[in-house]
Amino acid sequence: MSGRINNYSEFWDFYVREHSKPLTRLLHFIGTTLGLALLVWFVATGRWYFFPLFLVVGYAFAWFAHFVVEKNRPATFQYPFWSFISDFRMIWFMLTGRMGREVDRVIRGM
């Protein structure tokens, strides 16, 4: 992909292409879920000072997936906000059984 992405719709299609492999999506799901569980636990137990660890856990799984599985550069580096939002959108689509259709739509033009 060349040039800067200027709108979220365009970014979402880019994001889906960058997460084309099921293992990448699964690792994102695991990392984000564990990260959120840690966040809830830190808040519930009053250990707010551990707050940054939830980001470390979430991104560790995601970045491993990009560097090792997809062999691409995480979108977080260039589009941190849109990437963060898209992680949750992808997880919602996975939970509702729609992510496969999104991959087909973007990658295969279906």
Give the total of beta strands: 0
Average pLDDT value? Answer: 93
Could you list the spans in which at least 5 consecutive residues all have pLDDT below 50?
none
- The structural class is mainly alpha
Give the termini separation.
20 Å
Shape: globular
For this structure, the quaternary state is: single chain
Main sheet makeup: none
Describe this protein's structure.
The longest helix is centred in the first third of the chain and has 23 residues, at 22-44. Helices cover 71% and strands 0% of the residues. Helix 1 (8-18) packs across helix 4 (80-95), helix 1 (8-18) crosses helix 5 (99-107) and helix 2 packs antiparallel against helix 3. The protein has five helices and no strands. It is mainly alpha-helical.
Summarize this, please?
By secondary structure, this protein is mainly alpha-helical. It is 71% helix and 0% strand.
Question: Descriptors for this entry?
Answer:
mainly alpha, 110 residues, globular
Secondary-structure map:
Layout: H1 8-18, H2 22-44, H3 52-70, H4 80-95, H5 99-107
Helix pairs in contact: 1-4, 1-5, 2-3, 2-4
